[in-house]
């Protein structure tokens, strides 16, 4: 039987992915929403999560699609009310917030799922399996897109906790931490901030794995035209390209996986299937490694100031 679930924060990703995925899910039934302005036709709507929790004890699961800097209070509220919680990426504005939520979920015997949608892109597991047997010489991430196209008017991305270019960049780091066969840590970060904003518009990162591998990432939010969401990987067995945000993998020029179709197809249905599995097992899944690298970039990063950003 399907479980009732409520969505919080009816904005871009809720409309693009969560609502269609839930409509197609046998495991969940969208029973209500909590959002100040957004609603879904035919679904009970509450202006905030507190009133939803008070009036709907019949809904055991809450999925939070709000921006990260407002997510902690609602996640805590939902767990304290005895509900299972699924978090959009990044799971919070700070690591400590999410550690706190994980401890609360464990203490109350509830499921907390910190999602990383890009890990469910079609070619990510094939890349992980192939790399497990290779000696890697170089891995270069190039994650470049036009913020005006992908985040039109979203001012929260420029506010503290909004992460700036790390909002898409953390997707790359979620893939990197899923496919890279060795522990790695950040050793250098150069962050470029628009002079009128609190979060970076570009970042160049260097990592070390203790094996001398050349490991880099370049994130840029001002690339016009087609986005570049690619990883270039040189190994002793040749060159691999994981492209289109993890949708395609080619090894030595040979495509190894069929293109899954429209952007992001399949990632969110996979997240809800995983949430259902976690609920059935009474388990949580909170992997903070992508966010740890972002936090390291902010603590170690050299700051440069560039031109003002205006929509
Ligand atoms: P969004 O549309 O700007 O925000 C989602 C909704 O959150 C808003 O419509 C708003 O609804 C509510 N909200 C509550 N407090 C808010 C505040 N202080 N500022 C702004 N909105 C607030 O954002 P989004 O693009 O859906 O992203 C939400 C999360 O999903 C982010 O963590 C993002 O990284 C992740 N995500 C986004 C995408 C994408 O393509 N956009 C892809 C994957 C993941 P009400 O006004 O009705 O309350």
UniProtKB/TrEMBL annotation:
Q: Name one GO molecular function term.
A: nucleotide binding
Matches recorded under Pfam families = GFO_IDH_MocA (PF01408)
Q: Which InterPro entries match?
A: Gfo/Idh/MocA-like_OxRdtase_N, Gfo/Idh/MocA_oxidrdct_glycsds, NAD(P)-bd_dom_sf
Domain Gfo/Idh/MocA-like oxidoreductase N-terminal, residue spans:
4-113
Protein name, entry field: Gfo/Idh/MocA family oxidoreductase
Query: Can you name the source organism?
Result: Psychromarinibacter sediminicola
């Amino acid at each position: 039987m399907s479980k009732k679930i409520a969505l919080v924060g009816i904005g871009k990703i809720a409309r693009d992915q969560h609502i269609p995925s839930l409509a197609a899910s046998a495991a969940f039934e969208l029973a209500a929403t909590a959002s100040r302005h957004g609603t879904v036709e035919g679904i009970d709507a509450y202006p905030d999560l507190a009133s939803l929790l008070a009036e709907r004890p019949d809904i055991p699961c809450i999925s939070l699609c709000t921006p990260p800097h407002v997510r902690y209070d609602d996640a805590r509220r939902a767990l304290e009310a005895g509900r299972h919680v699924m978090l959009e990426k990044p799971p919070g504005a700070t690591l400590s917030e999410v550690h706190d939520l994980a401890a609360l979920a464990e203490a109350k015997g509830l499921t907390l799922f910190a999602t990383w949608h890009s890990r469910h892109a079609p070619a990510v597991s094939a890349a992980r399996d192939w790399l497990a047997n290779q000696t890697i010489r170089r891995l270069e991430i190039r994650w470049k897109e036009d913020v005006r196209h992908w985040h039109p008017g979203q001012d929260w991305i420029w506010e503290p906790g909004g992460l700036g270019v790390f909002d898409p960049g953390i997707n790359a780091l979620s893939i990197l931490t899923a496919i890279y066969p060795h522990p790695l840590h950040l050793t250098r970060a150069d962050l470029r901030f628009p002079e009128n904003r609190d979060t970076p518009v570009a970042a160049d990162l260097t990592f070390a794995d203790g094996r001398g591998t050349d490991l880099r990432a370049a994130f840029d939010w001002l690339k016009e035209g087609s986005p570049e969401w690619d990883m270039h990987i040189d190994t002793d067995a040749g060159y691999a390209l994981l492209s289109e945000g993890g949708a395609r993998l080619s090894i030595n020029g040979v495509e190894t996986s069929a293109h899954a179709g429209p952007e992001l197809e399949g990632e969110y249905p996979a997240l809800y299937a995983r949430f259902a599995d976690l609920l059935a097992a009474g388990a949580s899944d909170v992997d903070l490694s992508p966010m740890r690298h972002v936090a390291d970039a902010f603590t170690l990063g050299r700051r440069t100031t560039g031109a003002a950003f205006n929509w």
